[in-house]
Design a protein that fits this description.
Distance between the termini: 11 Å
Family: Belongs to the mitochondrial carrier (TC 2.A.29) family.
Keywords: Membrane, Mitochondrion, Repeat, Transmembrane, Transmembrane helix, Transport
InterPro entries: MCP_dom_sf, MCP_transmembrane, Mitochondrial_Carrier
GO molecular function: L-ornithine transmembrane transporter activity
Largest sheet: none
CATH topology of the largest domain: Mitochondrial carrier fold
Subcellular location: Mitochondrion membrane
Oligomer: single chain
CATH architecture of the largest domain: Alpha/alpha barrel
Strand content: under 5%
Structural class: mainly alpha
């Protein structure tokens, strides 16, 4: 992202970034909403579906395309427009802060790490606009499955009615349910998002041209890399956030909720199947008595390694690891399939509209 040298255009830069981010968000939602619905259903009710195509087929069969795959489109638009408008405006401002802190004369000269750090900081602000609207979207997307689990009738409620119910029952705090895992997902996620985007743009820029002149296809490819980087890095946090917001988990410690999923559905379950914790503790205690002056950490590491090598061979086979980690990455496939075209379109619309607005308003840019 490139900004004017003239400090008097700072506010105008922010308006342009805000508007361009909003337009990009609208395009992103209409391209990616069906697979976002599939992702939420698989995250919150993983036992109901065999995979992405099974979830898509069952959703279309039982609920249709508009009421099923495009459920929650209105709050999704609100969420993404709110998030991306604030995100891109804050990203531009944070780039300037990073440039000032690193004594870089121009944001055009910021490195990949600096741009990634600006994305990390910008996501703090966008999280507050995203959390309430995404909460409503997720409740609408998972309404059928939630009703089946609670053995109640499916209520097709509007976004306004859901918001009213939350405010009446929980107050303002209720609409920010899941804010901690939202931040835990957004901030490191956008570090990788903007880092991946800027690094790919730099790599794909033809010799003798600037990143802004790399062309539409290269911009879309860079956006796709940024999106995949985002979701791969932080997907477990998104699983926790979705389950908190749909009402399956308490809005308590994010890491405690993640540990519960890991313990009950993931690799910890496999470890407990093959490790006698008391036996392991007895072995360590015996060795400590016999080798009193040995460095304790080295001793524990040695004994544990000896024990695990004999008991856990099959737990760490690739196929077993894949199965055990699936709980924390349930819904990852439709997310990646969705994010490639979605973020490609997001950045194409953002960069194109930003360039057109700069041209229309006569804003001086640095090439």
């Amino acid at each position: 992202m490139v900004h004017s040298k003239n400090s008097n255009t700072g506010l105008l830069d922010g308006v342009i970034d805000f508007t361009s981010g909003s337009l990009g968000a609208v395009a992103l939602v209409y391209v990616g909403q069906p697979l976002d619905t599939v992702k939420v259903k698989m995250q919150t009710f993983p036992d109901l579906y065999q995979g992405m195509w099974d979830c898509t087929r069952k959703t279309v069969t039982s609920e249709g395309v508009r009421r099923g795959l495009y459920a929650g489109t209105v709050p999704a638009l609100a969420a993404n427009v709110a998030e991306n408008s604030v995100l891109f405006a804050a990203y531009g401002a944070c780039q300037k802060v990073i440039a000032f802190a690193t004594d870089t004369k121009d944001v055009q000269d910021l490195g990949i790490l600096s741009n990634a750090s600006a994305g990390f900081l910008a996501a703090f602000f966008s999280s507050f606009s995203l959390c309430p609207t995404e909460l409503i979207k997720i409740k609408m997307q998972a309404a059928k499955e939630h009703a089946a689990q609670t053995k109640s009738n499916v209520e097709r409620e509007s976004a306004f009615k859901i918001t009213h119910k939350i405010l009446k029952a929980e107050g303002i705090k209720g609409v920010f349910r899941g804010i901690v895992p939202t931040m835990a997902r957004e901030m490191p996620g956008y570090f990788f998002f903007f880092g991946g985007y800027e690094a790919t743009r730099l790599l794909l820029t033809p010799e003798g041209k600037t990143k802004d002149e790399c062309g539409a296809l290269r911009t879309m490819a860079a956006g796709a890399v940024g999106g995949v980087s985002f979701w791969t890095a932080v997907f477990p946090f998104d699983v926790v956030k979705s389950r908190i917001q749909v009402g399956q988990m308490s809005d308590g410690s994010m890491f405690k909720n993640m540990l519960n999923i890991f313990r009950n559905e993931g690799c910890a379950e496999a470890l407990l199947e093959h490790v006698d914790v008391h036996e392991l503790a007895d072995m360590v205690d015996t060795q400590l008595q016999q080798e009193m002056w040995t460095a304790p950490l080295e001793l524990v590491d040695k004994v544990t390694t000896m024990y695990l090598e004999g008991r856990l061979g099959r737990v760490f086979r690739p196929d077993e690891l894949s199965r055990r980690f699936s709980a924390m990455y349930s819904g990852w496939t439709p997310t990646v399939v969705r994010t490639i075209p979605s973020t490609a379109v997001l950045f194409l619309v953002y960069e194109t509209s930003r360039s057109l607005l700069n041209s229309f308003l006569g804003t001086e840019t640095i090439s």
